[in-house]
Each structure stands twice: as C-alpha cells, then as structure tokens.
Amino acid sequence: MVFCACNGLIRKLPVGEPTTNGGSNIKLRMPGIIPQKNDDYLCTAFDARDEQLYITQYKIEGSAERAHHMLLYGCSDVPSTEISWDCGHHGVCSGSSSIMFAWAKNAPPTSLPPSVGFRFGGTQTTVKYLVLQIHYAHTLPPGEKDYSGMDIDVTSEEQKYIAGIFLLIGGAVIPPFMPKVHADACCTVNVPAPLHLFAYRTHAHALGRVITGYKLGQMNGQIEEIARGNPQWPQAFYGMPHVFDLESGDIIAARCTYDSTSKNETTYMGSTSGDEMCNLYLMYYTDAKIGTSYQICTDQCSRVPTLFPLDSDEPLLPNPLLEEHALHGSHSQENGTVVISNKMSINLVSFF
C-alpha cells in the first residue's frame, strides 16, 4: 500500500508559468508521498493528452538524500487511476513507454540544444501521460511527506528535431573480492532516420567505477568512444565532445566496470540499492516527422566480443568536487547547470 497526503485520481498536467523565452515552466511533483519501506518505487501520473508540447529543459526539485533516482516516463496509458501507486510491482506504463529523463546523485539541470525537444501530447506522439517515478532508498523520518519532483520548460512551438534516449542495459553476476568485473551491452542499430547523439548519462550503484560507450560504424569499420563516465559523480547528462551520427547497421555498445574488492558476497543485478545496475543513456535528436524517440539495447555482446578497446575499463581521474557534489551538492545553484546547447553549439551550428 502507498500512503500519501492526498485524495483523488490522476492529475491533469499543471498550468505552466510563463518563461522569458516565450514558453512555460511546469512543475511536476509527488503528491505528499510517504514511502512505506526501503527501496520503494513510487509513481504519479499527469494527463497530458490535450496539447502537443516539447520539453526543452529539466530541473530537479529534490535531493539524493531522499531520492535514490528519479525518472520521467512517457506513456500511452497508465496501469492505475490513482494519484500515486507502487510502480515497483504494478509497472509504470501500460501500452507503449519511453524514458524521457533520468536523474541521480544531485545532478544539475539539463538544457537541450536549440530546435530540439522531447515531444508529448497531441496527435503526433504516443506519449499521452507523463509519469514521475522516484526510487526511495529509505523511508522518511516520522511525520514527513515527500513533494519532490522536477520542473520542465516546455514550448508549443513545433521543433525541427525531436529528442530521444537510447538506453543500453548490461548484465553480469559480480563475484566478491574482484578489482574488475564487466557487464556489457551491444546492439545493431535499426532506426527509421539517423540519430544524432549529443549527450550521455551513466548509472550504476556503489560498485560501479566507470561506464564507457562505443560506436562501430558499418561504413568505415571504425570504433569510436562516445562516452566515459564515473557513476559515482552527479548522474547528469554530459555533453559529448562532438555529435556522433548513428545509422541503421551501425553497432552501439556499453561496458560497465565494477570493483567488488570490498564485498564478501556475490552481487546481482537488480532494482534495490544493494544490487547493481548497468545503464548507459544516450541522448539524441532526430527527424521530427519520421524519427523515433526511444531505443533500448539489452543484448550481452555475444556476437562482438572484441569490440571493446583495452582501456575500456580504465576509470576517470578522481574529482573530489564532483564526488562531494554527488553526496551533498545543491543543484539549485544556477551556475551548476549543464547547458548542453552551449557545450555543443560549435558542433551543431551547421544543423540549425
């Protein structure tokens, strides 16, 4: 059972407050949730069928001390008519689903490049509901309720490109006392229009040391590194050094590397904070008319075992500032924003 300081059914998408760029800012919040146990996965939905909108920025209102991670899903329908539900057992969406944003470890806000947005509502997309999911690693102090969530900047102006996420999920059994254990994922791309990768996010739990991503182009046979992240840093979407184009026939791959030297028992993949995960999120833009907004890869690389370079499991250099921010940082600071559009503007200028 889920307890919340609320009554009622699914809420309509809140009315946004005007922004300086002509759009609006919409606040998506949990309705006074009281998690009943550690590792609760709880959801709340917003009916977004009425109007087609594009999300251009995400900003989290919450902290890693309370929310282990937070996801925004786009759903064609939802499995509950209640204002909130246990989505660890009853699912997030019914019908089609896509991940539109992911956050953990006090990551700062994320802005998209110009002319790019995550599309929802209206008639051109299957996303009719926005569902906010929070993984509560622990229960709250007695008497407290949770109103965490995210602010999204939206516009009704039709965008030239739709944004999307390509999620790679690896799996492995992690023995104890091992300095390096790999979990890999590889897939051959099959998309109706080219994907233009511009940002990435890594996600693992306590044993994760580095997550890397690679593209193998079918035309030139060249292996390119597209991502290298430390999952113990703020789990934001970080801008790539340049835009990577991905077409049907290319191979995309991810490798997660774990250090279990401090563990005296086997660790398995799973949904609790004591388990492990291997997720690499690749954010992209694609043709708004025929492109797809979500791709997922779970193949364990049995067909291309030699894809990964020798340094694929080499961690990044320590960064005490980012590690401290992941534990205690405040992403309400404006100067903490990861503005992908600025970082990538030189590489994107020819497209817009």
Automatic annotation (TrEMBL):
Domain Copper type II ascorbate-dependent monooxygenase N-terminal: 27-138
InterPro entries, alphabetized: Cu2_ascorb_mOase-like_C, Cu2_ascorb_mOase_N, Cu2_ascorb_mOase_N_sf, Cu2_monoox_C, PHM/PAL, PHM/PNGase_F_dom_sf
Localization in the cell: Secreted
Entry's Gene Ontology BP terms: peptide metabolic process
Cofactor needs: Cu(2+)
EC number: 1.14.17.3
Gene Ontology MF annotations: copper ion binding; peptidylglycine monooxygenase activity
Disulfide bridge map: 43-87, 75-93, 187-297, 256-278
Gene3D superfamilies: 2.60.120.230, Copper type II, ascorbate-dependent monooxygenase, N-terminal domain (2.60.120.310)
Bound cofactor: record note: Binds 2 Cu(2+) ions per subunit.
Domain Copper type II ascorbate-dependent monooxygenase C-terminal: 161-302
Family label: Belongs to the copper type II ascorbate-dependent monooxygenase family.
Protein name: peptidylglycine monooxygenase
Source species: Daphnia pulex (Water flea)
Classification lineage: Eukaryota, Metazoa, Ecdysozoa, Arthropoda, Crustacea
